[in-house]
Amino acid sequence: MENVKIVVQGKVQGVGFRYHTKTLADQIGILGTVENQSDGSVLIHASSNKEDLQTFVSQLKNKKPSFAVIDDVTVTTENDLPNYNSFKIVYP
Fold it and tell me: What is the pTM assigned to this prediction?
């Protein structure tokens, strides 16, 4: 199981991006969370095998909601994520 932190920047708040991310995660079998950040970005913590994580990131970039505009996606390895048992949207 690999753990990553994904930061998506652009017009990704108020356009259904978190719901879309959860839908993709559930389809692929990704565990973790997605939440809006105060700087306008979206933060995703994701856990799965390497191949599924690569598919997830690729689909986040290429199958976005119609009103979303992605300027940058940063993926970093995380070592100390909790053991997730599902994928959840975190609300402030």
Answer: 0.95
